[in-house]
Amino acid sequence: AGIDTLPLSPREALSLEPRLNPRLIGAVQVPDGAIDPFTLVVENARDAESRGAHILIHTEVTDLIRDGVRIAGVRVRDRITAEAFAIAATWVINATGAWANHILRMAGLQIGLALSKGSMLITNTRLSERVLNRCHPPASGDIIVPNDTVSILGTTSLRADDLEHYEVTPEEVTFLVDELSRMIPDLKGERFTRAYAGVRPLLQSEEAGDDRMISRGFTLIDHGSCSGPEGLVTITGGKLMTYRLMAEKTVDFICERMGLHVPCSTHVQRLPGAGQGHTLQDRLLRLRRQAPAAKGEILCDCELVPREAVDAILREGKVRELQDILHRTRLAKGTCQGGFCVYRLLGLLNERHKADVSGGSNLILKAFLEERWRGIRPVLWGTSLKEEELIESIYKGLFNLTSGEPVLPGGGGA
């Protein structure tokens, strides 16, 4: 594959990653890496906007617009305001991942996709400095990825029948912990803060009896050349490592069909945030400098998220619901999983009179806690269970959240 490799002795491997199993017989170092998926999405959107794109968040496609034998646009609905409107387009690109067939059914089409659920676990601390993979053929439970202050353990591969309702099962949690303990033996004593899952859109293969054997390649389909309507293309399959190549091939095709001769720059242009890293020391120094100016108030103690970071997001004017803030910061991603910080964030939104944020404070808080519970529940044992009982007593006992009414007059206006 043309990837640089460096064989390591057990002693060399353990010097780099001391928590590895001391019984390992060898290791191979490769130029692997990890990304922040939330930041990646935001930077992609920011890059697109700088080139003329218009991003509509919280908006879903409800139908395709037909003009004879051609798809001429889409009908959409704002999921917050319920406003419906149409968007005309010369070409419609279906790049909806696991939801590709949901869109195609609006045109009476369907492609062969195997929907494979992959479950992952998040530890309370970072286990390694590098991505750790087991050296064997692709299988479930074979990777540990460092992600900021935590590590992500994965993954499984099970068929998903319902894209809107799926959960991480106790069996998957047990399996992942057992399997990955072979790489890091003391993993079973670690605290886990969350479990989550995603669905892979894999190109259907009759020969593959196991989803792990299905290719992670991608396919670009021009439906007009396959007895379908003109003006509609689907890009599907693939994975994170190839998403830029998928975008490049898709736009190259559209440009060719539209008679546009523009050199592709996807493979040479970096995203706006590329190269903008920081260390924990940098973060602490920045917080210290902000403190005298009253900007150093910490909203999230676990992840050291300052008030100023949220204020900066609010100033951009693109916040419509709580998740729009959480996706762009480390807030609520630490040990307490938002139990001790989200109510502070809602207080800030009230202070800023953010009436455009969907819902009232108590409703937003309830919805957040319910959603977080789905991720916490599969890994609820030991210290995590104790903390969850504490958070429950705070919200039910002190905040009286179960009453459904604002705790104080005016408390419901976010």
Unreliable segments of 5+ consecutive residues = 406-414
Q: Summarize the main sheet.
A: 6 strands, antiparallel
Helix count, DSSP H or I runs of 4 or more residues: 11
Order of helices and strands: EHEHEEEEHEEEEEHEEEHHEEHHHHH
How would you describe the overall organization of this protein?
There is one protein chain. This protein has 414 residues and is of the alpha+beta class. The protein folds into three domains: 6-31 and 114-203, D-Amino Acid Oxidase, subunit A, domain 2 (D-Amino Acid Oxidase, Chain A, domain 2), CATH 3.30.9.10; 38-112 and 214-258, FAD/NAD(P)-binding domain (3-Layer(bba) Sandwich), CATH 3.50.50; 280-403, no CATH class. It contains eleven helices and 16 strands. Strands 7, 8, 9, 10, 11 and 12 form a six-stranded antiparallel sheet that branches. A hairpin with a 5-residue loop joins strand 4 and strand 5. The longest helix has 17 residues, at 382-398. The model is unreliable at 406-414 (pLDDT under 50).
